């Protein structure tokens, strides 16, 4: 999966109404809350078989930081 494809699919899952980039910060999103975090955890688990915990979520700042946590090697 390409990074932009991942971002677009995750944005759709989170029902974001703005365009996001690798530099978009989660804290700037109106839709980012505990429910958003749960959606993200499920999406990443289903898509990459990677488990994120609360500590991981606290450390995430941008979509790029999420990709780094998942593993850059999993993106083409």
Write the layout of secondary structure elements.
Elements: H1 3-13, H2 34-48, H3 54-59, H4 63-70
Task: Give a short overview.
The chain has 4 helices and no strands. It has helices at 3-13, 34-48, 54-59, 63-70. InterPro entries: ACP-like_sf, PP-bd_ACP.
Instruction: List the uncertain runs.
Output: none
For the record, give the distance between the C-alpha atoms at the N and C termini, rounded to a whole number: 6 Å
Structural class: mainly alpha
Mean pLDDT: 95
- The biggest beta sheet, please? none
Gross morphology: globular
Number of strands: 0
- Count of individual helical segments: 4
InterPro entries: ACP-like_sf, PP-bd_ACP
Organism: Polaribacter pacificus
Domain Carrier: 1-74
Protein name: Carrier domain-containing protein
